[in-house]
Design brief:
This protein is mainly alpha-helical and about 100 residues long. Helices cover about 70% and strands about 0% of the residues. It has a domain at about 10-75.
């Protein structure tokens, strides 16, 4: 069994390097395609979340406007508590 030394210029070594380069290139292309599909799905999730947040903000604005309107209506109503001649009860000190 003789050991033959392969030089870098040997056709077998050159085809091996070329084959490995093709395999690595194919893997890189596959990984880029996977990455782009993940980015696309992530962008879809981000856009849907943004829509949901904008809907929530508009609903919150409507609720705040209704609460302010109700507050104004309650403040316009007369006080119905009759404290009598002595006035309101004294405030209790806490603590």
């Amino acid at each position: 069994m003789g050991h033959e030394a392969f030089s870098i210029l040997s056709p077998v070594v050159q085809f091996g390097f070329a084959g490995m380069a093709v395999i690595q290139f194919a893997c890189i292309i596959w990984m880029i395609k996977r990455f782009l599909s993940i980015v696309e799905s992530t962008n879809l999730v981000i856009s849907r979340n943004t829509e949901a947040i904008n809907t929530n903000v508009s609903l919150q604005r409507e609720i705040i406007a209704l609460q302010r309107k109700e507050c104004d209506l309650l403040l316009q109503r007369p006080c119905i508590i009759d404290w009598g001649p002595s006035g309101p009860p004294p405030q209790q000190k806490k603590g």
